[in-house]
Amino acid sequence: MESALDYHDVRALLAWQMELGATDAIGDLPVNRYELQARLPKAAATQAQPAKPKEIDPVDVARQMAREANTLETLYNALAQFEHCDLKKGARNLVFADGHPGARVMVVGEAPGRDEDIAGKPFVGRAGQLLDRMLAAIGLSRKDSVYIANVLPWRPPQNRDPLPVEIAMMAPFLERHIALAEPDILIAMGNISCDALLGKRGISRMRGTWHEAQGMPVMPMFHPAYLLGQPLQKRAAWSDLLAIKARLDGV
Ligand code: URA
Fold first, then answer.
1. Does the beta carbon of 109 lie inside 6 Å of ligand 1?
2. Domain range holding 81?
3. Can you name the residues that pair with 188 across neighbouring β-strands?
């Protein structure tokens, strides 16, 4: 049955009730508002959520970029374009490599320090000069028989140790770097390098014995920076250098 009241009547009645002090419109039956509330979120939950942007995995990006690099030059360019490692923002230069590409020996250090960051080359500071002397002692030089790179191509702030997340992110580039350089022997300088190449640390235990990475022999050695502070350990380093020389000579 249609109501006899029109819009204006209903409005006038409402105004009259408000004048009498009515503040809420209530029905004949009580309403359980807790029940209403319980039903509400379900309805909200069924509403379509806006699509979340797909998260980027920096390690996947690094893998893809490294895989696509077919020369040392394109690998350098790939690293220069890689934007996911925050170390890059604080570094002056990308420190890629030094020495003779294609050399039989490849040294893998940790990360650039201040001098390397300024020069854009690995191992140019005091530790680097000691490294050159160590290599020269077995007839090797970066000029024609050694190639040198680091686990990380950018300097960590205040020369702090590389973080595991940084090592993992840059590992695909290092792996590709080694594959493209094709050395016969790798030298893992210090714990960080052992971690990146062999997946474990413990340089005092590991040095002096041959390990394997990417199908190549790896000699873990004390880092030259450590030897600068611990000259007595140079004896161990000398023994490792002789083992490297013997292997190169096919003894
Ligand atoms: N230490 C490293 O491991 N690498 C460098 O390039 C310099 C110091």
1. yes
2. 58-248
3. 108, 220
For residue 105, tell me if it sits in a domain: yes
Our count of domains for the chain comes to 1
Place of tokens 């840059």: 170
E strand spans, 131-226: 146-150, 185-189, 211-213, 216-221
Residue 91 lies in a domain: yes
182: left (phi over 0), alpha (psi -120 to 50) or beta: left
Q: How far, CA to CA in Å, does 180 sit from each of 75, 77, 80, 146, 174?
A: 9, 14, 17, 14, 10
116 CB near ligand 1 (under 6 Å): yes
Task: Kindly give the number of the ligand 1 atom that is closest to the alpha carbon of 193.
Answer: 3
CA gap 91, 68 in Å, rounded: 25
Q: Residue 145, Cβ neighbours under 10 Å: how many?
A: 16
Helix or strand or coil: residue 109? strand
- What is the CATH classification number for the domain harbouring 224? 3.40.470.10
pLDDT tens digits, 37-65: 666 666 555 677 788 878 899 999 999 99
- Model confidence pLDDT, tens digit, residues 74-122: 999 999 999 999 999 999 999 999 999 999 999 999 999 999 999 999 9
Put residue 54 in one of left, alpha, beta given phi > 0 → left and psi -120 to 50 → alpha: beta
Q: Is 151 in the pocket of ligand 1 (CB under 6 A)?
A: no
